[in-house]
Amino acid sequence: MYNLILLTNILRILDDIGMTKSELAKKAGMSVSFLSDLTNDQANPSLRIMEAIAHALDTPLPALLETTDLDRQTLEELAGGASRLSLPEGYVRIAAILTEFQAFTVRQWDQENRKRLEAAKVRRKPIPAKKI
After folding, report:
1. Which of 13, 51, 97, 101 is deepest in the core (most CB within 10 A)?
2. Exposure pattern of 49-87 as b/e (b: 16+ CB <10 Å)?
C-alpha cells in the first residue's frame, strides 16, 4: 500500500514541477531504469532510496508516504483490502506551505493533538478528534 502512495506522489510531484524521470534519477543518484521500475511498481525502494528521492524532490519523506490524491476506497481497492491507519480516526497528516503566523498556529494545534494522542495511549482508550 505504501508503495502505491509513494509512487502516486512521486509521479504527481514530477508532473507538478515539470521534472522528468531522468532528471529525478540523476538528482537522486540512481539509474533511470531503476527509477522507471520503481514508478511502475516493479521494484521496492530502500529507505535510503526513498530519502534520496524525497531530497531530490525537495519534499519531506513523510509527505511522500502519508498523503495521497487517492481516496481511501481507491487505496483499499488497490491494496486488496482495508488498510491500517497510522493515525486514529478523525486525525490526518498534511504537508502545506504556510505563512509564519499560520505555521505558528498549526504548531500549537500539533502540540495539543500530540498531547491528546499520548494521553490516549497511556489510558489505552480512544479520544475523539477535537472539532475546530
Report:
1. 13
2. bbebbbebbebebebbbbbbebeeeebeeeeeeeeeeee
Q: Which three cell numbers stand for residue 41?
A: 511498481
Q: How far apart are CA 107 and CA 25, in angstroms?
A: 34
| pLDDT of res. 36 | 86
Check: pTM over 0.70? Answer yes or no.
no
pLDDT of 92 over the 80 cut = no
Q: What is the DSSP string of 44-109?
A: ---HHHHHHHHHHTT--HHHHHH--SS-HHHHHHHHTSPPPPSS-TT---------HHHHHHHHHH
Q: What is the mean pLDDT of residues 46-72?
A: 84
* Residue 25 · residue 31 · CB < 8 Å: yes
For residue 66, pLDDT over 70 is answered with yes
DSSP state of 11: H
